Amino acid sequence: MTATELATTELQRHFERTIEHDQRIEPRDWMPEGYRKTMIRQISQHAHSEIIGMQPEGHWITRAPSLRRKAILLAKVQDEAGHGLYLYSAAETLGAERTDLTDRLISGAQKYSSIFNYPALTFADVGVIGWLVDGAAICNQVPLCRSSYGPYARAMIRICKEESFHQRQGFELLLTMMRGTSAQRDMVQEATNRWWWPALMMFGPPDADSPNTAQSMAWKVKRHTNDELRQRFVDMSVPQADALGVTLPDPWLAWNAERGHYDFGELDWAEFKQVLAGNGPCNADRIAHRRAARDNGAWVREAAAAYAAKHAEGQGR
Amino acid sequence: MTQDSQGESPVRAGWPLYEVFVRGKRGLNHVHVGSLHAADDQMAVRHARDLYTRRNEGVSIWVVRAAHIVATSPDERDPFFAPSGDKVYRHPTFYAIPDGVPHM
């Protein structure tokens, strides 16, 4: 073994001990290339999801039924932007470039959560997105607050605190509609029918088809498997649906006393793969909108940079 | 900044990175909360307010260009910190005091 190899082995051992002791890896620590790549991919795709996630509900801001709902929705969509920015910052601590990441989103080189490729057809969808989509996101994200990568874990703590408002405002919106007319109740049921299965897909492929899970669990960047989290979400959602008075669109959904969990039907994984491959209802729209936002904002960024340069010159810096 | 000297367009290279520190309330220290990009110092303060204090998380914000921060080496076993490692007598628990002695 050469001296360099010996040094790398020692660094590797130190890295593994840090993770074993449930301590955090921090930006300038030595880490295996695979860990760095995995973290950059996971964090930036999470950031992209937050940014694209502004769109389905963002379209409803100008059409919200009251000033109260408009203010709430505006605050929620602004939070999603904030979450994207916390996460891009965390990815940058690993050596990634911000502009490179945002370009990769637009070129399709990096993915975002498949859920945001579905449309929000009515205002009830805004409520169901808060209840189920943000609910599933919370389920996924709470364990990430203990991710082994420090900056990611810290970003997740902030995000989870804010996400709780997102879910509650959605549920309250739906409760209000359920107390309204029968047409409003139908809207809530239809939106629930639309979003239930895609929300379950947010946890990713079944464990048997998730080749990266074992390594991610060993690195403690993932704390539970996809199927564990999906089951937890189903168990949480059933009593919420009862409280709301809607029916979850799954004839196989039933309490299993032996397992202590709800059984539920098979997901349409062919649909999941199609949406991931870019063939969902809104994939092209989402990216086109993002590209337009980047291109239309270019002159603002240029002007700000020119102003800063001129100002710095004036101060003789 | 360096991107200008390399002849890249400032937009392509992006705005410089700032680190953000927030004082949660009077009586507490400023604490590092994250980072952001901004064209200049004033924009950095405004972005920091919008990004890190949307829910009254702060009464005061500091921003500093990340490039201006000087830090110790990342290794926690750095000999830089060795001088304090072997001075157990700096801690109160080093001294044995009989149980009966009050207020100590």
Automatic annotation (TrEMBL), chain A:
One annotated GO molecular function: phenylacetyl-CoA 1,2-epoxidase activity
Gene3D superfamilies reported for this sequence: 1.20.1260.10
Coiled coil: none
PANTHER family: 1,2-PHENYLACETYL-COA EPOXIDASE, SUBUNIT A, PHENYLACETIC ACID DEGRADATION PROTEIN PAA
Chain ranges passing through the membrane: none
Organism of this sequence: Tamaricihabitans halophyticus
GO biological process terms on file: phenylacetate catabolic process
GO CC, alphabetical: cytosol
Protein name: Ring-1,2-phenylacetyl-CoA epoxidase subunit PaaA
From TrEMBL, chain B:
Domain of life according to the entry: Bacteria
Protein name, UniProt field: Ring-1,2-phenylacetyl-CoA epoxidase subunit PaaB
Species in which this protein is naturally found: Tamaricihabitans halophyticus
